[in-house]
Design goal:
The complex is a heterodimer. Chain A is α+β, with helices and mostly antiparallel strands. Chain A is built from 13 helices and eight strands. In chain A, β2 and β3 form a beta hairpin. By secondary structure, chain B is mostly helical. Chain B has a domain of about 210 residues: Orthogonal Bundle (MetI-like fold). Chain B contains 16 helices and two strands. A two-stranded antiparallel sheet of chain B has the order 1-2. The chains are: A alpha+beta, B mainly alpha. Chains A and B meet through α2, α4, α5, α12 and α13 of A and α2, α9, α10, α11 and α14 of B.
Chain lengths: ~400, ~425
């Protein structure tokens, strides 16, 4: 019939240059061809230039001796180590700043975001001023300001400010504090800590399952914390409680012994945390504001306390709004940690920059930077996406 | 309670008066014990910090010293700012010519402020504002501009091409023929020019002395990098966003790959790449201005972020808009430019301004490759040994300037968000 005839009518032949599919493919082939041509042109130029300037290519330089000092190293490193080692040390420093920055910025930002919603007018205004002041000025400027303040406002090592009964020293060379001398027991304490974390996690799961089945609550958070703190302490006591410390002491022009938090690191971490927490505060605030008022009222009507309703009703729902923008803030912290180079903290980009200057092999090094940041970014995204999926609304 | 007769019920105290200034204080500062304690503690802390800060910044500050040594032992040394003001704002631009960057800043501000007026949001008005504004800005900064013949030809080609695409089936035959002629003149001319048949003629405009980009510095550099970074990144970000939403798999793949690559790495790595790798990419002998290299890196970077913002706007459009445009028989260019983009861009203007604030701050990173932007010239003010030792004053001043720019832009973005949603709000 009419409908059927319409459906099965033979399609009028379209000229190929008017067929959208053909047009689409032609267009794609042309664009990809142009991009390919551009890439070929650039690669060709690069090869010619490299040959002309007699710059070696390939990653062989990674095995050669780096020959430069790195101020802050988490693993063993000396100028005699290889370039690969220097880049690895820089990468670890980037990760250290990023992880600490993410944790501290989340904490401070959440406090500020909740503070902005406070009933207390003064508190909410102060939080608002903080947010506006920090997010409207470049991070790099904060870094310079903090770094210069630390290195110029604090006294030199000889006039260092001592705190905690002469055990901690503040000077423009950094914060010196005592550390325990290395001992075999510490390795076992680390193992104990890992075991305790796994145990606490298992305990938490068991308690949850029991509560789902029987309704009986179990204080798994307190028990878990006890386990995580208690087990390493127990190992320490069993291992004979080694308590020899390395104390910082003035020797010549600088301190010797103990451990040090360098001013570059302090400035970088402070700058990242204070700057990013302003953005985190806005995200947390809008996440909580996005919740319907009825949720608070319903939780109160069920007889939950304020803490319980925050923890069990409001935060889980607010998190759904908060997590996606928070992910991009975490990525920003990681990427912004590369500003370390401006104040002389040896992060990944700083290590690589020295390597570029010494070897002249720009392409390989830029590739390493990109690969490193892309893999860190993708890992953070993957983790946050997994977390987001876990807390997402399960619709039946 | 209910069995007590009405007249004998215990009378409750009247509710606390919460009107007037006292009531406001009671409601907002002392509504409960905890609230009251918080208020008292905060006031004490604020008073302590403010008294210290005011003492340093105003009461014991030195505004008139002629060297840094005179400021020793006192509060803030604002005399340093007075002394270095022109260095901070204009960098190493020739001293007696510094009225030029000042006028350039004013021209760019005028351009940005007129653009922020919604009455100016018509294609021809925007085109006029930006071409005049940009011409004045760069003429003032460079002092001399030579416009090559190929630029005129390229403009003819673009105007003709755009006219042909958008006036298809609308314009009169005469109008269409004019576009065809323009496009043809542009295309043929460009081919002849590159074949070397047409001479390398340039239109010289030389009212002032020439100042190369290496001498530029301070606020104009920051404003040029941010403004023109965004201006050039805008069309290309839109193209990336459209490509990412396209049905064509190869185009989509290219765009997704590019956007994610750029967004996954820090701006610093792009700047380092621009400063060390770009010279390798170009044919031997071709050199590239350092300032232009930084500008290219900022544009590449900004485009990927703008693409993601614009994509949000494209996704917010209901499918019916696309289908209705198809049903009207519009071609892709007409559909996109006349139906889709006007609606999508309207939604993303406030987030785009926030992106712009981000770039205005991020341009400060160019100091790492040795360009004298506003933050870098502020750094230079600290180098002078006669004024050593007052970093706080200089950075606070620079922070204040950045704050004024960014804060006013964020207020404008908030205002637009309300203004643009007037029609859809209930």
């Amino acid at each position: 019939m009419a409908v059927e005839a319409l459906g099965s009518a033979p399609r009028t032949k379209v000229a190929p240059w008017n067929d959208p599919t053909v047009r689409g493919w032609v267009f794609q082939v042309v664009v990809v061809g142009l991009v390919g041509l551009l890439a070929w042109y650039l690669v060709d130029n690069t090869i010619t230039n490299l040959e002309r300037q007699k710059i070696a290519s390939g990653f062989h330089y990674l095995g050669r001796e780096a020959g430069f000092e790195i101020g802050d190293t988490m693993v063993e490193y000396s100028p005699a180590s290889t370039y690969a080692r220097a880049i690895y040390v820089g990468m670890l420093n980037t990760l250290k700043v990023s992880v600490l920055g993410i944790i501290m910025a989340t904490f401070l930002g959440t406090l500020l975001g909740i503070g902005r919603l406070s009933n207390n007018w003064l508190l909410s205004k102060i939080c608002e001023w903080y947010v506006e002041a920090f997010r409207n000025v470049p991070l790099l400027l904060w870094l310079f300001l903090f770094y210069k303040l630390i290195s110029e406002a604090f006294p030199g090592p000889r006039q260092a400010i001592s705190a905690f009964w002469g055990t901690v020293f503040l000077s423009n060379r950094g914060v010196y504090f005592p550390v325990p001398l290395a001992d075999a027991v510490f390795k076992w304490m680390g193992v104990a800590l890992l075991v305790a974390i796994a145990g606490a996690w298992a305990l938490h799961r068991w308690a949850r399952r029991r509560q789902d089945a029987t309704g009986q609550p179990f204080p798994s958070i307190i028990a878990g914390t006890g386990l995580i703190v208690g087990l390493p302490v127990l190992v320490w006591l069993l291992g004979g409680a080694p308590h020899h410390m390395s104390w910082p002491a003035l020797k010549g022009f600088n301190f010797d012994g103990g451990s040090v938090i360098q001013p570059e690191f302090t400035a970088l971490l402070f700058g990242l945390v204070l700057y990013t927490s302003a953005f985190v505060a806005e995200i947390v605030r809008s996440g909580i504001l996005a919740l319907h008022k009825g949720q608070t009222e319903a939780a109160a009507a069920l007889g939950l306390t304020r803490g319980q309703s925050m923890r069990l009703v409001l935060l889980p729902q607010a998190l759904r709004v908060i997590v996606p923008p928070m992910t991009s803030q975490y990525l920003n912290i990681t990427k912004n940690s590369s500003l370390a180079i401006a104040i002389g903290y040896p992060d990944l980009v700083a290590s690589i920059n020295v390597t570029i200057n010494q070897t002249g092999q720009a392409i390989e090094n830029v590739l390493i930077i990109m690969a490193a940041y892309l893999s860190v970014s993708l890992s953070i995204s993957a983790f946050m996406n997994w977390y987001n999926k876990r807390i997402a609304l399960r619709e039946r | 309670m209910t069995d007590v007769p009405v007249g004998e019920r215990k009378q409750l105290a009247p509710p606390v008066d919460d009107s007037g200034p006292l009531g406001w204080i009671r409601r907002n500062l002392f509504s409960s014990w905890g609230n009251g304690i918080t208020t008292v503690v905060l006031i004490a802390a604020l008073a302590w910090i403010l008294s210290w800060f005011l003492d340093w910044a105003v009461f014991t500050a030195n505004f008139t010293a002629s060297t840094g040594a005179e400021c020793r032992g006192q509060g803030a040394c604002w005399a340093l700012i007075r002394e270095k003001l022109r260095l901070i704002f204009f960098g190493t631009f020739p001293y007696e010519q510094q009225w030029r960057p000042l006028l350039a800043i004013i021209a760019m501000l005028a351009m940005l402020i007129t653009t922020s007026d919604r009455r100016m949001w018509r294609p021809w008005r925007l085109l006029a504002i930006w071409s005049v504004g940009s011409f004045v800005t760069f003429l003032l900064m460079f002092g001399q501009i030579h416009i090559p013949l190929s630029l005129f030809l390229a403009v003819a080609l673009v105007v003709g091409g755009v006219g042909l695409a958008f006036r298809q089936g609308i314009g009169t035959p005469l109008e269409m023929n004019a576009y065809r002629a323009l496009a043809a003149v542009g295309a043929v001319g460009l081919v002849l020019r590159f074949a070397g048949i047409l001479p390398a003629w340039k239109l010289p405009i030389t009212p002032f002395s020439y100042v190369e980009t290496g001498l530029w510095g301070g606020l104009p550099v920051t404003m040029i990098l941010a403004t023109y970074g965004l201006l050039f990144a805008f069309p290309y970000g839109i193209l990336l966003a459209l490509g990412r939403r396209s049905n064509l798999p190869l185009i989509k793949g290219l765009c997704v790959g590019f956007i994610e690559l750029i967004r996954g790495v820090p701006l610093i790595s792009l700047l380092i790449m621009a400063s060390v790798m770009l010279p390798l990419f170009l044919p031997t002998g071709v050199t590239f201005d350092k300032f232009l290299r930084a500008q290219v890196a900022v544009i590449l970077f900004a485009g990927a972020y703008i693409a993601e913002t614009v994509r949000g706007g494209l996704q917010s459009l209901p499918k019916g808009q696309f289908e209705a445009a198809d049903a009207m028989g519009l071609n892709y260019a007409q559909k996109t430019a006349l139906i889709i983009l006007p609606q999508a861009l309207r939604v993303v203007i406030p987030p785009l301004i926030n992106t712009f604030i981000g770039f205005f701050k991020d341009t400060s990173l160019v100091l790492i490759i040795g360009i004298f932007d506003f933050l870098n010239t502020a750094n230079q003010a600290l180098v002078d040994p006669a004024w050593a030792g007052y970093p706080g004053e200089v950075y606070l001043f620079a922070a204040f300037v950045y704050f004024i720019f960014c804060y006013s832009m964020s207020r404008y973005s908030k205002y637009l968000e309300v203004e643009l949603n007037k029609g859809t709000r209930r």
